[in-house]
Design a protein that fits this description.
The structure is a single chain. The chain is α+β, with helices and mostly antiparallel strands. Helices cover 49% and strands 15% of the residues. Strand 6 and strand 7 form a beta hairpin. It is globular and about 65 Å long.
Length: 311
């Protein structure tokens, strides 16, 4: 008794969330991720085209035994091919570039809830770690994401990338050392991050310089991604507690009172969304010191293009 091959659309939909997560963590851009997923779908659909359909450069072959492995291989290699174009855009980007935030509800949705928006439910590393991953080579980043985030074995990654397992192990070792040198493993508990975020926003929007000086770590850094579209974003990272505190205290009288704060998860961490009326104004993500008492990094995404999908 013969079995008909699985429906290509259903098979792709079953793995779309995984593909989105892997590619987003490799590229840091929702739009570029969607482009890669579209290319992946087209390649997958062509590979699974029914006999007798219109001519194609991809004649129908035997059914694919492991659709997930096949789709991941296509998506990862398409993502690597996109890195060159992404890097060229970054070279002309105005001011610091930060990853496009993935915004979800503060509490996890109930089991069985509608998962139509894969971005909200995607597995993603923190904003701070994504910034560190930007300093890796594309191959190192791909290997790190597949191995450290999604648990792929070195032999599986070798198959995906068409390289030897020993080469993959070397890439993984370099990437892990690079990341660990710049990013401690410790992650504060969500309730601690939430409390510190609320305290920081109260001080920043209220222009309370003394409170800001207490909550900011001495070596704090502020990254503001406005893409040249907003006047309040700094064109360079701002380093040091005194400079960062005085910058927020100076901005508060102009914008602090007119903004509404909503707390959501951003890339999996409790964070703040600032709204001017119904319009997203900025997404703010804090990085805390290992003891969780002070803020050592502030990531503010205010580029309207990167907030288009925030509501």
């Amino acid at each position: 008794m013969s079995h008909s091959p699985p429906d290509p659309q259903a098979a792709f939909d079953d793995h779309r969330e995984l593909l989105f997560s892997i590619v987003y963590n490799m590229l840091g851009s929702v739009a570029d991720t969607e482009d890669v997923l579209q290319e992946t779908w087209l390649a997958w659909a062509a590979r699974n085209r029914e006999p007798g359909a219109e001519p194609t450069e991809h004649p129908r072959a035997e059914p694919i035994e492991h659709p997930r492995a096949y789709l991941v291989r296509i998506a990862v290699n398409r993502a690597l091919a996109h890195r060159a174009a992404v890097s060229r855009r970054r070279e002309t980007y105005v001011g610091p570039w930060l990853p496009e935030p993935l915004v979800g509800p503060l509490t996890d949705p109930p089991v069985g809830a509608d998962a139509a928006d894969a971005a909200v439910h995607a597995e993603s590393v923190s904003m701070a770690l994504l910034v560190v991953l930007e300093t890796l080579t594309p191959l190192e980043r791909g290997v790190f994401v597949l191995h450290e985030v999604f648990g792929y074995a070195h032999t599986e990654i070798a198959d995906i990338l068409g390289r030897s397992p020993s080469a993959i192990r070397q890439l993984a070792h370099r990437a892990r050392e690079h990341v660990q040198a710049r990013r401690p493993r410790y992650e504060p508990a969500p309730h601690v991050r939430q409390q510190v975020t609320e305290r920081f926003l109260a001080a920043a929007l209220g222009g309370d310089l003394d409170a800001l000086l207490r909550i900011l770590a001495p070596d704090v850094t502020l990254w503001s991604d406005g893409g040249g579209r907003t006047r309040t974003a700094s064109l360079r990272p701002v380093h040091g507690r005194d400079k960062v505190a005085r910058l927020f205290a100076a901005l508060a009288p102009r914008s602090g009172q007119s903004l509404d704060v909503v707390y959501r998860k951003v890339n999996g961490d409790p964070s703040a969304l600032l709204f001017a009326g119904d319009t997203p104004y900025a997404v703010m993500v804090l990085d805390l010191t290992p003891d969780g008492d002070q803020v050592c990094g502030i990531y503010t995404v205010a580029n309207p293009d990167k907030l288009a999908h925030v509501n």
